[in-house]
Amino acid sequence: MIVAEGIYKHFRSGTRSIRALENVSLEVGRGEGLVISGKSGSGKTTLLHCLGGLEAPDKGQLLYDGIDLGSLSSKALSLFIRKNVGFVFQRSNLFSFLTVRENIAFPLELNDMGGAGKNRRIDKLLRDIGTPDLGPAFPHEISGGEMQRVAFARAIAHKPAVLLADEPTASLDTDTGRLLVELMISMSGEQKCAIIIASHDPDIVRMADKTLFIKDGKVEVLK
Amino acid sequence: MRFLFFFKLAFLYVRRSFRSASILGFMVFSAVACLVFLSSLAVGTNDAMIRNSVGLFSGGVSVDGIQRIFDPVSLGIDGVQDVLVRNKCPARLNRGNRSEYVLLFGVDPDREKKYTSLWKKTVEGDYLKAGEREIFLSKPIAEKLGVSVGGRVGVGIGAEVPDATMAICGIYNTGISGLDQGVAFVPYGALPCDAEFYSAALFLEKSADAEKIASSLRSSTGEKFEIKAWPEFMPDLKQLIDLNFVSMSIVMILVFGIVSIGISCAFVIFILKNLREYGVMKAMGVLAVESSFYLFSQATILTVLASLSGAAAGALLATVFSRIGIDLTSLTSQNRYFAVSGFVYPRITPFSLCLPPVLAILFGLLGAVWPSVYIAREKAAEILRRI
Description:
Chain A is of the alpha/beta class. Chain A contains seven helices and ten strands.
């Protein structure tokens, strides 16, 4: 269970202070899907970064199964993220110098999952995302849709507690984007992994268990 | 921490970023190759100065005050190629009302010709011949006495002994005051005195260390004789060589300091061109120490490979030129330390081979400091937001 309580975040731009999040609270259970929706610049990415531990909120609390992320040291937080969080970004997700297979192996290696188990896991993920033959390919050799599917496979390879996806379909056509999100939701559900997607795509909003509309850093509606 | 994994990752990065790694590697490679060759050339220049200086007459080690009963063969220890015995006595050379005081050396002309180069400096006439009663003079002394080849000079060794007369077989000119002033040469038999002591010039093998040989001789002969290695009787040359060594080291560090700025800049670009990927890595829970290790591994792999191949290329170039030599005759004609030959043969020493790659690796690692500190300190969210 991920619980965010009263999250505030602001940024400084020169002499101006920009309010990115104001008193945001939410709850997502294991296997549940939440879509954070809102216009560009509304604070979706900042909220996602805060939920993933990449950004520390100025105020408020983030609890992962009762563990307060704010109480962890920098090293402990990195190790926590390594084990419990998977990220899919809008673009340039994959490491350009690694093959698809090596990209998926990255979080497994980080989490000490090596040997035959690692290879079995990669093979399964490649089959599940419908690209069983892409293993030896480099990112520049595959399409944008394939790239995002591989990025998703990499994000859930180590079976994290939560998958965070920031506009994962933004660079894809509608059909490819919809198929990707369906795949993400179904596979995350199988793994009992909470999935939080930041998107302004109405099709994606309709697929979610819960939706949080955000405007100027404030939660407008939580459905 | 997964150091082996990150080292493997760094290796893959360097191998697969072929174009940029090649450009950066070539910078390091060429700098190291040039500096290995240049430092070998500096060693070769020093060798040439020593070879020219000791090969002219003195030998690498000189032994003075040897009693007649002592067999010079005993001086031929390991590293000594040959021992040239020289008798000497002070003499006065006379011609008409002109006279000049010299130290007259009695030498074996055939062996002197084999090991020394003084005969090559003959400007008029010929060098000495064994068994003849003739004298070999320097040009300044011949001018002072007003004599030329074929002429005769009186050689006196004291008031109680009548002057001997000798024919002048040849005149030499070295440009070195120690050999052009105050000395003259005759074959053994023509020396008008019967010296109680003799001196010996030891000509050494190529790799032999004159100071070590002198020290061994001192201990083996019980310090009865005055034994000097060339740095002791040619302190100015020793100082010049020490200065060359220091200045070459400074030049090397300065050159690498300047080259390193280029290498560091290229390295920063090499690393930061994939800045977003480091942001993604951090977002996946890579620790600051791991990302630093990863970057330093990239720098190490790249600079070690480039430096080793650069050192090998520099060594190969130096080896080729050590066989054929580099003719600097036109540049060294005014240098008294190149009195015999202007050919320089580069020589690789552990120092000349190791210093450039060590400096390259050091500066390569220094080049990785800023990017690794930057990536270690920057938050993943900041990097991802920016790019």
